[in-house]
Amino acid sequence: MAGNERSRTKTMHILKLLYKRADDERGVTMAEILSYLEANGVTAERKSIYRDIAMLRECGIEIEKNARKPVEYCLMNRTFDIAELRLLADAVQSANFISESMTENLLRKIETLASTRSANIIKRQVHFSGRVKTQNEHVRYTTATIQEAVHEGRRIRFKYIDFDLSKGTRPRRGGSEYEVSPYALVWNDDNYYLVGYYERREQISIFRVDRIKSVEMTCIPVAPQPKGFRLADFIETKFGMYDGERVGLDLRFANELINPVLDRFGMKTPIARDGEEHFIAHVEASISPVFFSWIFQFGDRAQIIMPERIAQEYVTFLRSALAAMRQTEQ
């Protein structure tokens, strides 16, 4: 019995080494296997290792020898290849709703799904410093509660926060709770949003997940979706993307626009007061009609100060829209 137990232990050590160091391009040599086993207190002969590898193959582990000298044993059927892991890493890095500390933690976990060689490649290509990231460390718990509520068909209650000019937070509506029937979580423009029926306004509303606090699932069933409501159409209508030349800008806003400005450009955005009722934000943005439309929605409460050429492009955009409107009146 003791011999069988040692044999099983040896086999598991070999499998662990393969998952740690081998992939479909590079593997581990017999000498490396023997050295790894010895470091873990297991003595073995080459013949027994050949038998272990054969048994692992019979169990569906695709182990192949490459043409290198000395021969390496490669693991051909990893759950994820390096391209797939890079996609996962990019998604985590790009997600604004994931905090920096959670990003680092998730990237470390993604690296464990790869061989040491592939993990080093992913690590060298990871660059998320300087990206806009939420300061809310509880997003994963908020998201889990919302997902459970969607699955169970239950309403949720939560508090919703606003930013102030000092970049602090305060609960909206004096801290009163929101009651919402959650329909879906939507990832758009690197942020996570809750789409649901807001009981107080009796309409479908959108909430930034990283601005949701103290969420809890209730025992109350969700309100039925309004007649004719289609989530795909709603998302297409409500969520837009930005594309175009990226430019550094000085934008002037009325103080009450601090929330949408920090939502759009992040908490590291340089903010300077401009009198009692306005502030100037220095941002980097992609210049396009969609960006100009984002500015335009604030009317005379938002202006492009610098650079002058972008301000003139915005004026041209507005004049073009006005000219088109006047043509329809003729």
Question: What report would you give on this structure?
Answer:
The chain has 330 residues and is α+β, with helices and mostly antiparallel strands. It has four domains: 2-75, Orthogonal Bundle (Arc Repressor Mutant, subunit A), CATH 1.10.10; 82-125; 139-238, SH3 type barrels, CATH 2.30.30; 245-329, Alpha-Beta Plaits. 42% of the residues lie in helices and 26% in strands. The longest helix is centred in the C-terminal third of the chain and has 22 residues, at 308-329. The radius of gyration is 28 Å and the shape is elongated. The mean pLDDT is 84.
Put the structure in a nutshell.
This protein is an alpha+beta fold and 330 residues long. The chain has 11 helices and 13 strands. The chain has helices at 2-21, 30-39, 46-58, 82-94, 100-111, 116-125, 139-152, 231-238, 258-265, 289-296, 308-329; strands at residues 28-29, 63-65, 72-75, 154-163, 169-171, 178-188, 191-198, 203-208, 212-221, 245-254, 271-274, 278-287, 302-306.
